[in-house]
Amino acid sequence: MTGLQIVVLAIVQGLTEFLPISSSGHLVLVPYLIEWTDQGLAFDVAVHFGSLVAVCIFFREDLLGLVRGALQLVGGNLRMPQAQMALAIGLGTIPAAAAGLLFASWIEANLRDPAIIVYTLSGYGVLMAVADRYGKSERVIANVRIKDALIIGCAQALALVPGTSRSGVTITAARVLGLKRQDAARFSFLLSAPVILLATAYKGFELITGDATVEWGQLGLGAAVSAVVAYLSIEFFMRFVSRIGLAPFAVYRLALAAVIVYVLI
After folding, report:
1. What is the C-alpha separation between 10 and 133, in angstroms, rounded?
2. pLDDT tens digit string along 81-95?
3. CB distance 49 to 200 below 8 Å
4. Which of 73-77, 85-89, 174-178 has the lowest mean pLDDT?
5. Structure confidence by residue, pLDDT tens digits, 53-65
6. Is the whole-model pTM more than 0.85?
7. Closest of 152, 151, 159 to residue 21, by C-alpha
8. CB 19 within 8 A of CB 40
9. What is the 3 state secondary structure string of 92-136?
10. CA 126 to each of CA 43, 56, 142, 153, 240: distance values in angstroms, whole numbers, following the listed order
């Protein structure tokens, strides 16, 4: 990979991982549009690790609270708010983790296609706009219960299909459940941390134990750029989502789907 390719794809990943416009879809589309060869597993692992670093830094206080909550669970204090949130995040992670183990390889081999991305970008974009428009905005993140976490977790599993957007589909589910925009986004991002960690660790293990040559310098650059851009992306989204809503992102998804149809299909 050239330096330009590394930086461009890392910026794309950092921008789109936490905005509800699909990072996986963009990482498939950009090489198609520019006629680059596929960046490969190693690079995907690196830039996702950068995104994980960004979310851990931005939500460090929340994540420390989850650690305290996990310790409370171990100690039997199930009724404590932090323990309840840790349990919700843990159980909400299970659907995506199970779906990843069962279907990730098949999806990687069969669904990384612009035609699929057209349907997921546009279909989930419409659902996101409708959920945001008619969501009641009555609840905050402290009101999230186990049932809510499982529903949002099942939605997160759908994001294995390129073009869906993990943040988009989980925020949509949270808005349907009545969470305010910023609280829906916060829960979505916290729920992303263990999933990204598990996916990165799994793919990283495949990478380390495989026979392919690894360009660690390139991967380090990709991870660093992705982390910086992802942090700024989270900061922007959390600051403005309550005011701008999700409609602009839904419009972007529909416009991008139209461009794909015109250019590639």
Report:
1. 32
2. 999 999 999 999 999
3. yes
4. 73-77
5. 999 999 999 999 9
6. yes
7. 159
8. no
9. HHHHHHHHHHHHHHHHHHHCCCHHHHHHHHHHHHHHHHHHHHHCC
10. 31, 30, 28, 20, 20
